[in-house]
Amino acid sequence: MHSMDGCNNQSVYSHIACCAQLGMILEVSSSPKPGNIDRHHDYEDTRYEHFLASAVSVHPVIEAAARNDSRVGALLKNAVCHSNSWQSGGNTHFGAFLLLIPLSMAAGELLGSGKKFDMDELVARAHEIVCSTDTDDAIDFYKAFRSAGVRVNDVDEFDLQDDSSFVSLREEGLTLYDLMVISQGYDQIANEWVSGFGDCVKCARMLDRFMDVSGDGALIPDINHAVVFSFLKLLSDRPDTFIRTKTDENTAEEVSYQAKCIVSKLESSGYHMSPFWDDVGKFDELLLEKGLNPGSTADIIIAGLFISLLGGLRF
Amino acid sequence: MHSMDGCNNQSVYSHIACCAQLGMILEVSSSPKPGNIDRHHDYEDTRYEHFLASAVSVHPVIEAAARNDSRVGALLKNAVCHSNSWQSGGNTHFGAFLLLIPLSMAAGELLGSGKKFDMDELVARAHEIVCSTDTDDAIDFYKAFRSAGVRVNDVDEFDLQDDSSFVSLREEGLTLYDLMVISQGYDQIANEWVSGFGDCVKCARMLDRFMDVSGDGALIPDINHAVVFSFLKLLSDRPDTFIRTKTDENTAEEVSYQAKCIVSKLESSGYHMSPFWDDVGKFDELLLEKGLNPGSTADIIIAGLFISLLGGLRF
Question: Is the CB of B21 less than 8 angstroms away from the CB of A64?
Answer without folding.
Answer: no
